[in-house]
Amino acid sequence: MRRMGIEALYRKPNTSKKHPANKIYPYLLRHLKVECPNQVWAMDITYIPMARGFVYLAAVVDWATRKVLSWRLSITMDVQFCLDVVQEAIDTYGKPEIFNTDQGSQFTSFAFTDLLKQNGIQISMDGKGCWRDNVFVERLWRTIKYEEVYLKAYESVSEARASIGHYLRFYNAGRPHSRLDRQTPDQVYFSQLPIPKAA
């Protein structure tokens, strides 16, 4: 069905439910020229269908280079799941200047925004219903699903985790992007990082 462009008519999980009591931050990326690694990171959550049921996939992406910095699978969309993904990216790659998400309740929660503030990171959020504001993550989801997920029928979470992990390593290190002048995200990310000054 997917190869024919047909989708089943069942209710898909809503990964962007807004919490009415949480603060919504402005979108900071409009007209911003994003040119270097760690200038802007973006994060989103999508659902991954399995042979029975589904799991959630969250990822942090470097906006300029398309590199997937960290990711996790979870059977629930709790805030801790998202915090762990962000903390892993910070621990591994440092901190971005701006962090962009949609207005989902996980991202507007105090715990999530406080983590970003404690690290001195500016918070940016998409306009309501404006998927184009986070277009590079949306493209990542499409790529993962059509090149990996829709070709499989994962029998377990551990199988999904192993297979998606293998694909994302290929995505970062072995899949050239036309928008990156036919280079891979890893090539662009690491070649553009500032060279540390000699002591």
Summed up:
The chain has 199 residues and is of the alpha/beta class. The chain has helices at 79-93, 105-108, 110-118, 135-147, 157-174, 185-192; strands at residues 40-49, 54-62, 68-74, 98-101, 122-125. The protein is globular, with a radius of gyration of 17 Å.
Plain-language structure description:
By secondary structure, the protein is an alpha/beta fold. It has one domain: Nucleotidyltransferase, domain 5. It has helices at 79-93, 105-108, 110-118, 135-147, 157-174, 185-192, and strands spanning 40-49, 54-62, 68-74, 98-101, 122-125. A five-stranded mixed sheet has the order 3-2-1-4-5, with helices on both faces. The radius of gyration is 17 Å and the shape is globular.
- In total, how many beta strands? 5
| Spatial arrangement of strands, main beta sheet | 3-2-1-4-5
Could you tell me the CATH topology label.
Nucleotidyltransferase, domain 5
Mean pLDDT: 88
Q: Number of helix segments?
A: 6
**How many individual domains?**
1
The helix fraction, in percent, is 25-40%
What is the CA–CA distance across the termini? Answer: 60 Å
CATH architecture: 2-Layer Sandwich
- Name the beta content range: 15-25%
The CATH superfamily label reads: Ribonuclease H-like superfamily/Ribonuclease H
Please mark out the parts with pLDDT under 50 across 5 or more consecutive residues, or reply none: 1-11
| Shape category | globular
Biggest β-sheet strands, sense, barrel: 5 strands, mixed
The radius of gyration over CA amounts to 17 Å
User: Helix and strand string, N-terminal first?
Assistant: EEEHEHHEHHH
CATH class: Alpha Beta
Q: Strand pairing plus helix content: what structural class?
A: alpha/beta
